[in-house]
Amino acid sequence: MPVAAVDYAHLRLTVTDIARSRAFYDSVFGFDVLVEAPPADADEQTKEQLAFVFGGVIYQFAGGVLGLRPVAPAGDRYDENRVGLDHLSFAVPARSDLDDAVEVLDGLGIAHEEIKDIGSGYILEFRDPDNIALELTAPKPSA
């Protein structure tokens, strides 16, 4: 009998530079911070309690929880701390939201593809500072 998973709990991306990645994700998405690494001068108990953040940040948004974990090794070779995945797609309510996203990305100087009609919906593809492929997906209206 298969595992009865009904949704995912969270996704954490391994990144190389937390300051650069936070600037990107904050400016593009503006997600609320759920928890973040304590400052360097925090007491040891706080540092130990938040060790699971790995020096990064965990965001909360309507779709779930997204973490950034800045532990990619120098030289980046395959292991569980390697940067990347095929892609991460965020849902937006409508095609017009993709047009709005193009304006945001253009305003931030972030390269992106054109909005594509994929039959079942529309997508807008772009990449984060570590070249992780990101996508926004909008459904087609019901007939």
Keywords:
3 helices; 143 residues; 2,3-Dihydroxybiphenyl 1,2-Dioxygenase, domain 1; 8 strands; 4-stranded mixed sheet; 2 domains; globular; alpha/beta
Describe the structure.
- The chain is an alpha/beta fold.
- It folds into two domains: 1-83, no CATH class; 85-143, 2,3-Dihydroxybiphenyl 1,2-Dioxygenase, domain 1 (Roll).
- Helices cover 22% and strands 28% of the residues.
- The protein contains three helices and eight strands; from the N terminus they run βαβαβββαβββ.
- The chain has helices spanning 18-29, 44-49, 95-108, and strands spanning 11-14, 32-36, 57-61, 64-69, 88-91, 116-117, 121-127, 133-139.
- The chain has a four-stranded mixed sheet, with helices on one face. A four-stranded mixed sheet has the order 5-8-7-6, covered by helices on one side.
- The radius of gyration is 17 Å and the shape is globular.
- The model is unreliable at 77-81 (pLDDT under 50).
How are the strands of the largest sheet arranged? Answer: 1-4-3-2
What is the helical fraction, as a range of percent?
A: 10-25%
Question: Radius of gyration from the CA trace?
Answer: 17 Å
Strands, total number: 8
Q: Largest beta sheet, briefly?
A: 4 strands, mixed
Domain tally: 2
Approximate shape: globular
**SSE run:** EHEHEEEHEEE
**Distance linking N and C termini:** 38 Å
Percent in strands? 25-35%
**Count, helices:** 3
Contiguous uncertain segments of 5+ residues: 77-81
Mean pLDDT: 89
Structural class: alpha/beta
